[in-house]
Amino acid sequence: MALANILLLSQIAGHVILVILSLCMMVPLGMSIHEFSGHCLLFTTGKWREEDGMFEVKWASTGFCNFPFFTAIFLFLVSTLQIYRYSRMKDEASFLSLFVDVVVGIWMLSFSILSAVMITLGFIVWCEGMTERFPSCETAAGQNIIHGDQEHINTSGFYMEMGTAQFGAWGSFAVTVGIGVIALLKLIQNHQVRNIKVSMYLERQRLVNQHQSACQPPPTLVKEISQK
Fold first, then answer.
1. Where do the TM regions start and end (predicted)?
2. How far apart are CA 3 and CA 175, in angstroms?
3. pLDDT average, residue stretch 9-20
């Protein structure tokens, strides 16, 4: 029982941390999409024009930003629901409920690792273009690098925003690993307890049957008594 309580408290703490980390993904990604006028800088490439020194952008698909953004929303909603559910849990969870927790944990883990890899690799591609002109990607933040009809794009915070999103994504991945392991441990523990209960019941029935057989007189003795 003590182990079950520790695992339950660990799950609640993990989901609380996951809510915070999902916000670390959701808010910066939303700000970046807004500041880049609906464009996504992840995996975006381009070339520097020699005549004016501006960056001629070849925008990547917005899906590279939308997937991590919706992953953050998914993690936030699931974690909020799980915190509410666990905090009100009084009875021991059923096997089906624990199995669902494991499946949900696998989905959370898969989405978070895909988002983390997508943000990291996509940001590396963008920074490779920036470092062709600037000494570091951080230096390019806030510089006037995009010209023409895209002057309204604000590049001042992209480095901090993507850095925060990376932290939130990789942190979410680490926490979802822990949450998934705890859910799997609870499922295994529940399965073992069920097996023990079944084994104890079968052993009890065997002992009862054995006791009843020992208390009954032999058939030959019953026959002799009936003849007399």
1. 12-33, 67-86, 98-126, 167-188
2. 20
3. 93
